Amino acid sequence: MKPLRYILLGLLVFAAGSLGAAGLDDYKSLRLPEATRAAAGTNRVTVMFLGVATLLFDDGETAIMIDGYLTRVPFAKFKVMAPDDAVLKKHLARAGVGKLAAVAAVHSHFDHALDSPRVAQFTGAMLLGSESTANIGRGQGLAESQIKVVKNGDSLLYGKFKITFLTSAHLPSKFGLGQITEPLQFPVHGEAMKLGEAFSILVENEGRSYLIQGSAGFSGSELTGRKADVVFLGTGGLGATAASYQSRYWDAIVKTVSAKRVVPIHWDNFYLPLDVDLVPAPGFDKSMDALIAFGKKDEVEIRLPVEWQWTEPTLGLK
Ligand SMILES: [Zn+2]
């Protein structure tokens, strides 16, 4: 993008952000109820949403994280971004993260994978993702023994968690296409954090199943035959797409896995820090209205996550 386009995009994000707070309030009744964090031996799985597609899963014995994007680089630093260790440590402490078994990146754009290797380093986790994600880790000095490159269909077991990677697609966009083919040296321009491979990630634990769709894209039939009780559905950019695209996206993801509940994610303005209440990005209302209509038609519950709160996303499902 040209500099002027960055500036215009930034203004748009902030202008819409300041109006958007009321938008979130409009959907208060859809919030997932707060739960206590799962303890060992309770046969529960609890999830904490930390903005964009960052999700912390805990069954009381094992904890895993999707993405782990916590630095939330301000827009002014888009061209010279790097993980901020102080911010990362502060937020990991607030979330009560000690040891993590794995950090799995949905794809390698900055708003997903910038911090994944540092989170792995701080928590002892394995970094799971595409070769591009691995090269972000290598550039940040993560040991090769803590990196696992995954491909379509790969499943990994951590305690009672089974994490399966399924090839998906990104929301159609020209941003940061391609692969990261060698260790990435930081700081980097945001566009150097290229997509790599986009995955749908299926998390299963003792009969419960959760699909994490980090980006509002879909490809062929990779999800056919897969089931998920709950879909954490990426909505970034969805509000700006055509109604026919939104409907195909819903069918390709939510209907294919026969989900009973959808939890929209990736709706917040990720240029703002996690210290303040999340502010919806432009298009939030439009994507929510579309999802609510699809949910009504197909009898799928739509529930919004609240940042920093433990929730039990499968609670009450038959
Ligand atoms: Zn992306």
Write up this protein.
By secondary structure, the chain is an alpha/beta fold. The chain has one domain (3-311): Ribonuclease Z/Hydroxyacylglutathione hydrolase-like (Metallo-beta-lactamase, Chain A). Helix content is 26%, strand content 19%. It has seven helices and 14 strands. The strands form two sheets. It has a seven-stranded mixed sheet with strand order 6-5-4-3-2-1-14, with helices on one face. The protein has a seven-stranded mixed sheet with strand order 7-8-9-10-11-12-13, with helices on one face. α5 (131-139) links the parallel β5 and β6. The protein starts with a helix and ends in a 7-residue tail after the last strand. Residues 14-22 have low confidence and may be disordered. Bound molecules: zinc ion.
Summary, kept brief:
The chain has 318 residues and is of the alpha/beta class.
Question: What's the layout of helices and strands?
Answer:
Layout: H1 3-25, E1 46-49, E2 55-58, E3 63-66, H2 85-94, E4 102-104, H3 110-113, H4 116-123, E5 126-129, H5 131-139, E6 147-149, E7 155-158, E8 161-167, E9 199-205, E10 208-213, E11 230-234, H6 243-255, E12 261-265, H7 284-298, E13 301-302, E14 310-311
Parallel strand pairs: 3-4, 4-5, 5-6, 10-11, 11-12, 12-13
Antiparallel strand pairs: 1-2, 1-14, 2-3, 7-8, 8-9, 9-10
Helix pairs in contact: 6-7
The structure holds zinc ion (ZN).
Zinc ion (ZN) binds next to loops.
